[in-house]
Each structure stands twice: as structure tokens, then as C-alpha cells.
């Protein structure tokens, strides 16, 4: 892998320990409000520098300034000792800076190989050579992606792999990873860590942004903590721990949260069965999937990416169509249902909260209030009104912004201006405003900070306590174990194991998911 990375970055690199990035008193203001204020930050060659903080702390703004996507209001930026003033991302690329965004910036109508080569095309390109080069780069990082596959057909994890490969292809000296493991399985995450270790060994500088503090402490040499747009501390990872980092992030210690109180009494069989899935089939993706969900419980679904979890949820809610003949059955409160479009599922009280918020979760050029109101209008109650109501829109926005603690610059802030975690909260609120009976969460805390994770978990628990049937699809096993009353494990499109809360362990779940 070392040779592949060396070939990808090309050229002479700075000696280990020399300054690659120096940011002095960098400030960015939006409509008079500071997104970041007088930030000092540095990165040296051969170092992994983690950047952590709660949602809205300014991490993404700082990285976007370095990547040329955002221009600072004040302050200085030096790259390899030379002062620079980036006006566009291309300027940053020319200085050897590449960013792997949390929400992928790939072109969906192009293949993986074409996206990797984008910006480096030759006058005459042979597709065979293009695909071979992309295949070699992907394989060198143990990323199993077909270079000829269109990006629109790839899942979130494989899109992230293509993003990483494209960053290396750009001959970067500085690579910024923004939540790179949010869509990766544990095995894929280990492969990514190997890649980052190789980048460090090759003399590159890596900025690692992640809400998973354990990852940051494991892989980084230093950690810089931001809070409310200001730098709170920069510490060596060898001299700190998770609890100290959390205190820097939130200004206090976070407990483990309240113990889960399972609503109702007795086994699931004595509760009201709300949703039944029987022998669901969709080609080779979902093969004979069966399970039941009960009112007042959280059903966790674990499994590797590609095991059919998301596709099952989309079949239930009418986003995908199961096989017409021998495709299985879905029953809601004992009544067989087969939805042609998601609107029918919403009318029956079933909502699916997507894993890809940027693609399916919201309208980024509209405001928070407008997005929440559109969620209301999509419900049966919302469609009964012939006229749009500004008062109703403002009422819904106040209620759900407060309930989910959505932080925005002001009431008219567009969703694109929010942090990733606040966008995730909005995606949840836009579905819950429809007052569903069955709520399906797909990776509910992807790209969310430690404080907001607890808030979302409490919301999920409250929904179950209110008598909703809640299904949580998650690749993060501690999350599944924390919030679930029952846990299903899927493999190759089938349900292969079921555990109660008491008997489930990470080892049992992983064994069932793999073997």
C-alpha cells in the first residue's frame, strides 16, 4: 500500500515535523454572527491532527476555509510557510489540499473511475486505462468498489471510499477527513485507519474530523477542541482521555445517561403487534426477510452494510418494490399493505428517516421552518388544509426546533448553513411532525456529536414510551445495544438471529452478522 500512496501523492513531500498549515486568528462571520472566532490552528508533516467539538462548534467552517470552499472574514492562512488567500476549492487543490467531505461531493451520473479522475483528465482518455488505474488505487486501500459502477448505484460506504481514493489521486500533501467512518463497517474502518497510517508514514498531514472520540484518540497525534466557534484546547492524545475531551467540548462532564426503562410489561408476545414482515424478497438484495415490531418497544436491526437492512425499510415504506410474485407480505395492525409510493405509508402512519440526509432528508436551500412545514404538509392532516398558514409554519418551527434543539444562526437560516448534526436533527423532525405510529430510523446518529447522540437516543426512547413502534437500523453496535429492547441481525438479505436486550453482546451480534 505504501507504494500506491507514494505514487498517488507524487512529488517531493515536506520533511516530517515541518509546518504544513498555520492558521492565525481566523474568523468567519455570517450576518454578524461568528461561526468561528480568532482560531489558531496548525498541522505539521507526518501528523494526524484531530478536530473535535459539538455540532455547530465550527469544525466544518474551519475545514472549508482550509479547503477553499469558504473565505474567512479575518485572519491569516499559511501553507508550507507561504501566506495564501484561497478564492475557490481549485486554489486549495493546487496547494496540495484535498478534503473528503462528510456528505459526498461525487457526480452521481459518472462512474467511480471517472469521479476519481475528475479534474485530472487527459485530452484523450482510454476508459480501459482509466478503469485499471482506479481499480489499482482502490485495491491498494482494500476498498472493494467496481470502478465501472455509476456512483448513483453505490451505497453510502462505497461513495465514501471513492471520495477517499479521489483525494489521494489529487496528489495532496494535506488531506482533510470529515466524518470518514460514519458509513463504514468496523472492518472497513480498520482499512481506513491503515490508509491514514500510511499517509502519515509518507509524510502527509492529515486533519481528522470525527464525532467518534475513541477513533480520534486512537489515530491522532494531537486533538484540537472547538466550542461555540472558539478554540478551547489543543492537547497531545497521549496525555489526555475521552472524559477530558468531553469536558473541553461541552464545558461539563457527561454521564452515561439514564437507564433504559422498557415500557409495558412482559415479553413482546404480550404487546400489541403493529408491523409484521413475512418472507420479504427483492431480487438478490432482500431474501426471505421476516420480523415483527411491537408498540412500545425499540427494535434494533444490526448487520453489515449490504445485508439488506435499508432495502427492507424502503420496501416497507413504498420506496422500493418487492417481487410481485412470491415477494412476501407486510401487515400493518393485521392488515396486508403494499405501498406504491411513500405517501401511502405516511397516510397509514409509517415513516422512514433516511441514512443519507443530504440526498433524501431535506431541501437545503430552504429554511428550517419551511422544511418542517413541508413535512407537516406531506401528512394526511397537513393535506386537509387548502391554504398555507404562516402562523402554523412558525408554530411547528418553534416547537420542533426547541424539542430537538436545532441550532441555527437565525430563524431565516437556510439548511445548507447548518452543521451536519443539526441537519440530522431537522431530518428527524421533518418526519416526526407527521405524527407516525411506526418510525424507522436508518443510522440516526450518523455525523452527530456526543451530546446530540444522547438527545436523539432520549427522543427514540420517548417515542417508544409513548406507544410508538420504533425500528432503529444502525452499524454502531454500542448504539444498538444501548437503545434496543430486541435486536435482530441480518446477513445476505435474511434475518439470521434475534437477541433480547439481556442476552445481546457485541461478540454475539458480530458473530451472527459474519458467520
Molecular structure report:
This protein is α/β, with parallel strands linked by helices. The chain folds into three domains: 2-250, 3-Layer(aba) Sandwich (Rossmann fold), CATH 3.40.50; 271-349 and 436-515, Rossmann fold, CATH 3.40.50.300; 363-434, no CATH class. The chain has helices spanning 2-9, 59-66, 89-94, 112-117, 127-140, 156-169, 186-201, 213-219, 242-250, 309-316, 342-347, 357-361, 368-378, 380-383, 390-404, 420-432, 450-465, 477-483, 506-514; strands at residues 19-30, 33-44, 47-52, 74-79, 82-84, 97-100, 174-178, 205-209, 222-227, 230-236, 273-282, 286-294, 297-303, 329-332, 335-337, 350-353, 438-442, 469-473, 486-491, 494-500. Strands 6-7-8-3-9-10 form a six-stranded mixed β-sheet, sandwiched between helices. Strands 16-17-18-13-19-20 form a six-stranded mixed β-sheet, sandwiched between helices. Helix 13 (368-378) packs across helix 15 (390-404) and helix 13 runs parallel beside helix 16 (420-432). The longest helix has 16 residues, at 186-201. The chain starts with a helix and ends with a helix. The relative contact order is 0.11. Residues 255-269 have low confidence and may be disordered.
Descriptive tags:
single chain; 515 residues; alpha/beta; Rossmann fold; 6-stranded mixed beta sheet; 19 helices; globular
In short:
This protein has helices at 2-9, 59-66, 89-94, 112-117, 127-140, 156-169, 186-201, 213-219, 242-250, 309-316, 342-347, 357-361, 368-378, 380-383, 390-404, 420-432, 450-465, 477-483, 506-514; strands at residues 19-30, 33-44, 47-52, 74-79, 82-84, 97-100, 174-178, 205-209, 222-227, 230-236, 273-282, 286-294, 297-303, 329-332, 335-337, 350-353, 438-442, 469-473, 486-491, 494-500. It is α/β, with parallel strands linked by helices and 515 residues long.
